């Protein structure tokens, strides 16, 4: 995986006012912790950090340069503004090369299931333990040709070499259901209407001797029964 480099600045002022000033200056308030060391308060360049997340994902390995000293770190938490989605605060975990760490890895679905299968997604991420310098950006889940009942569990996933699954192997990742038939959909609709107290209107039966699409002539006025000729002679 790529190793990104960010030049940090120390923070000596704290509180909401200080944080707002830091963000106005184009930087993000952050903390660095881990390995029993004291929490280090710093700030990161906002645009460069956004590029790290965009290109490397949330598990990107970052070299933080602070006062000339390099610290290897992983992003553990990011706070965003709910409206602007800008980064407001970052928690960084210090790591060492060769050590194991536990992270949540996103799942990416590839392929298309069978034509009669409906997918039921249950998990979007799984937890794994892996070398801090070899964390995957994502894990692919291949659903090609899967049919009803051919479910995929966490234990079925192909993990990177050296990684250990922490999520329960029996946890359902994607289930596959059979597509309902027209009869089943009609029965389900009828049941729903019955539960809602909706009565279906029965279509009126066609008149005997009249087939569908036949034209029924308009009834003619029979009058008094006298012919035109007899009326004129009267």
From TrEMBL:
Q: Which InterPro entries match?
A: Rbsml_bL25/Gln-tRNA_synth_N (IPR020056), Ribosomal_bL25/Gln-tRNA_synth (IPR011035), Ribosomal_bL25_b-dom (IPR020057), Ribosomal_bL25_C (IPR037121), Ribosomal_bL25_long (IPR001021), Ribosomal_L25_dom (IPR029751), Ribosomal_uL5_bac-type (IPR020930)
Question: Does rRNA-binding count among this protein's keywords?
Answer: yes
Domain Large ribosomal subunit protein bL25 beta residues, every copy: 100-174
Q: Which CDD domains match?
A: Ribosomal_L25_TL5_CTC (cd00495)
Q: Which UniProt keywords apply?
A: Ribonucleoprotein, Ribosomal protein, RNA-binding, rRNA-binding
GO-annotated cellular components: ribosome
Start and end residues of each stretch annotated as Disordered: 189-234
Q: Where is the composition biased (Polar residues)?
A: 221-234
Q: Where is the Large ribosomal subunit protein bL25 L25 domain?
A: 6-92
- Assigned protein family: Belongs to the bacterial ribosomal protein bL25 family. CTC subfamily.
> What's the name of the protein?
Large ribosomal subunit protein bL25
């Amino acid at each position: 995986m790529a190793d990104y480099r960010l030049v940090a600045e120390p923070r000596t002022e704290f509180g909401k006012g200080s944080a707002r000033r830091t963000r106005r200056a184009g930087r993000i308030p952050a903390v660095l912790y881990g390995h029993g060391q004291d929490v280090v308060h710093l700030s990161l360049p906002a645009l460069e950090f956004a590029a790290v997340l965009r290109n490397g994902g949330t598990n990107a390995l970052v070299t933080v340069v602070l006062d000339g000293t390099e610290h290897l770190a992983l992003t553990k938490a990011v706070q965003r503004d709910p409206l602007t989605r800008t980064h407001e605060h970052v928690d960084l975990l210090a790591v060492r090369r060769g050590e194991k760490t536990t992270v949540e890895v996103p799942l990416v679905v590839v392929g298309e299931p069978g034509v009669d299968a409906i997918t039921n997604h249950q998990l979007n991420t799984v937890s794994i333990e892996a070398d801090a310098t070899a964390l995957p950006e994502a894990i692919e889940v291949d659903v090609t040709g899967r049919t009803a009942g051919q479910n995929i569990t966490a234990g079925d996933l192909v993990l990177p070499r050296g990684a250990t699954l922490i999520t329960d192997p029996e946890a359902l990742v994607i289930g596959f259901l059979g597509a309902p038939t027209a009869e089943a959909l009609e029965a389900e609709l009828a049941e729903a209407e019955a539960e809602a107290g909706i009565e279906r209107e029965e279509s009126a039966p066609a008149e005997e001797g009249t087939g569908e699409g036949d034209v029924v002539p308009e009834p003619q006025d029979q009058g008094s029964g006298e012919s035109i000729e007899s009326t004129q002679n009267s």
